[in-house]
Amino acid sequence: MLMTTARAQPAADHHIIFDTDFALPPQDDGLALAFALNSPELDIVGITTVAGNYNVARANADVLRMLEIAKREDVKVYGGAKRPLAHEKDAFAASHYGKWWSDDPAPAPPGGFAKKTLEPTAAADFMVRTVMARPGQIEILAIGPLTNVATAIRRQPAFAQSVKRIIIMGGALASLPDGGGNITPNAEFNFWVDPEAARLVLRSGIPIVLSPLNVSMRTSFDENSFQALAASGTPIVKLIAAQMRPRYAGNPDFHPHMYDEVAAASLVDPTLVKTKRMIVDVDVTHGIDYGVSVGGAEAWPGAEGARTVDVQYDIDNARFMRLFVDRVKR
User: Fold this and answer.
1) How confident is the model at residue 12 (pLDDT cuts 50, 70, 90)?
2) Which positions ≥6 away from 239 have C-beta within 8 Å?
C-alpha cells in the first residue's frame, strides 16, 4: 500500500498577542487582522481587546464575528480594558472620533452575533500568563490604546523583561516629516486615548518598534489595489468589498491611509519600512499637549527615564500594497 504523509507546515517566525481596539473592516484593525490571519509567519496565540475606536463590547462582538467569517474559531479572544488608566471622558472626547468612553451595547455585526464566545480570562491576565510561561518568545502587536499592556506591566514586575518585543501603532513625531496628530493637532488617537499607558509602556524597557502616523501618512490604498483585492471573493474579502466599494464608487480620489496594517506587515517583512533609533516619550500633563508623543535623537529636559525605540518613518508603499493584497485575498 502506498502511504502518504501530510507536508509539514513551516514554523511561524513570530508568536504574537494581537492587542486591538477592534472593529470589522474597513476599520484598519479589521484589515490588519485579515492580513495577520493569512500570514503563516505569524502565529496568533491570542487576541486581546481594548476600548478605543469603539467600546470594548463592540470590539469583542466584532472580532468574534470576524473569526467566524474567516473560519478561524481556533483563535481565542480575551476581553480587555473598558477604560483608560486615567483619561476621563469630557466634552471634547464626546464630540470627536472614538467611543472608548461608551457603555452602549454592541450593535449586531453583519450576519449577527457570533456563536463563538470570549475566554474567561481577562486580557491583561492572559498576557501575563502567556509571556511568563514563554519568556523571550512572545511578541505583542499592539494596534490600539496600550491599556492592556500597561496593566500587565503593573501586575507582574517581570513581565516587561520577559516580552520579546512589542510593535506599537501609535504616536506622531513632529521632529520627523508628516508628524501631525489625527485627534488633536499633535496627538495621535491611540496615544491620546490612554497617554498614561503609552508613557508607561514606552518607558518599560520592552524592546519596541513604533509605527507612528509619520509612516502611515506615506501609504495609500488606491482603487487599483482595492480592485485586485475584491476580485478574490473569499468570505473576508466579500466583507471588505461590501463596505469599501461604495466609497471608491462615490469618490474617484478615495485612497485611505493604512495604519495598523503597516505595523502587521512590518512584522512579516521588516524591509518594507525605514526605521531610526529615537528617544520617545509621551506628555501626560493635562493641557494642550495631553497625549502628544515627542521624539528626539538625544535626551532632553523633562524626558528623564524615556527609552530609545525603533521608529518607522518611511515605507515602500507599492511593495507593501502588493504584499497586503496578496495575503488578504488568499
Assistant:
1) confident
2) 24, 25, 66, 69, 110
Contact (CB, 8 A) for 230 and 246: no
Pairwise CA distance, residues 46 & 87, whole Å: 27
Angle between helices 223-230 and 235-250 (to 10 degrees): 150
Q: Are 78 and 62 in contact (CB under 8 A)?
A: no
Q: What is the pLDDT of residues 288-322, one digit of tens each?
A: 999 999 999 999 999 999 999 999 999 999 999 99
pTM, rounded to two decimals: 0.95
Class of residue 164 by CB neighbours under 10 A (exposed 0-12, middle 13-18, buried 19+): middle
Strands (E), the chain: 14-20, 42-49, 77-78, 138-142, 165-169, 208-211, 273-282, 293-296, 307-315
- Contacts of residue 90, Cβ cutoff 8 Å, sequence gap at least 6: none
- Determine the straight-line distance between the first and last CA of the chain, rounded to whole angstroms: 35
Residue 16 in grid coordinates: 504574537
AA letter at 95: S
- Choose the CATH number for 14-328 among 3.50.50.60, 2.40.50.180, 3.90.245.10, 3.30.420.40: 3.90.245.10
**Where along the chain do its domains lie?**
14-328
pLDDT tens digits for range 37-90: 999 999 999 999 999 999 999 999 999 999 999 999 999 999 999 999 999 999
Q: Which contiguous run of DSSP H or E holds residue 325?
A: helix 317-328
